[in-house]
Amino acid sequence: MLAPSALSFVFAAPLMAFAVYRRVRGSFGRQPIRTRRMTVRVAIFAVLIGLMMLSGLQNIRLAEGALGGVLAGGALAALLGLRLTRFELGGDGADCYVPNPWMGGALTALLVGRLAWRFLMLAPAMAGGAAATQGPGPGNSPLTMAIVGLTVGYYLVYYAGILLHHRRYKRALQAA
Fold first, then answer.
1. Please, are residues 139 and 58 in contact by the beta-carbon 8 Å criterion?
2. 61: pLDDT strictly greater than 50
3. How many angstroms separate the CA atoms of 18 and 15, rounded?
4. Would residue 152 be called left, alpha or beta, if left means φ above 0 and alpha means ψ between -120 and 50 degrees?
5. What is the DSSP annotation of 28-94?
6. Under 8 Å CB-to-CB from 75, ≥6 apart: which residues?
7. What's the CA gap between 93 and 95, in Å, rounded?
8. Domain spans of the chain?
């Protein structure tokens, strides 16, 4: 019989792999602009940022790391990510955007690398059943919170920027 920590990993690992696959797939090639989905994503990322800031109730360093990451991610999206994104019309006349693959790939690699590092550092404690009593938990690192914040802040500002660009483009078409 598997230990509870191993059992949770068995269920969580495929979900995490699927999430990474979807994130990587969305970072390459032409993507249709789906305003409803992007609006929901912006709202979800805003809620995630709020929940990350609640970590400050446990440890202020965690909230500081998250806030620093969110601000850096938002600045990265505004100053670089949106400028490197190409906007074009698809074959069916629908609006599309082509994200810069290096930006999405680098953010995904950084996040997955950090989470893998934290897992490897905590694996011995989890195997011994002492995860609750020894050392910080998987999210109890300001650096981890900063990297998660970087990713969430980037995509919040990135999707909001795409929606703004799309709205301006539609208004320009209607005026012409």
1. no
2. yes
3. 5
4. alpha
5. SS-EE--HHHHHHHHHHHHHHHHHHHGGGGT-HHHHHHHHHHHHHHHHHIIIIITTT-EEEE-TTS-
6. none
7. 7
8. 35-128+135-175
Instruction: At 71, list the tokens.
Output: 């601000």
Answer for the pair 23, 104: CB distance below 8 angstroms, yes or no: yes
DSSP string, 79-120: IIITTT-EEEE-TTS-EEEE--HHHHHHHHHHHHHHHHHHHH
Q: What's the pLDDT score for residue 9?
A: 59
CA 126 to chain centre: 26
pTM for this model (two decimals): 0.79
| pLDDT interval class at 132 (50, 70, 90) | very low
What does the pLDDT read at residue 130? 52
Read off the pLDDT of each residue in 136-160 and give the average, rounded to a whole number: 85
- pLDDT, tens digit (0-9, with 9 covering 90-100), for 85-112: 998 887 777 888 999 989 988 998 998 8
Sign of CA dihedral 37, 38, 43, 45: positive
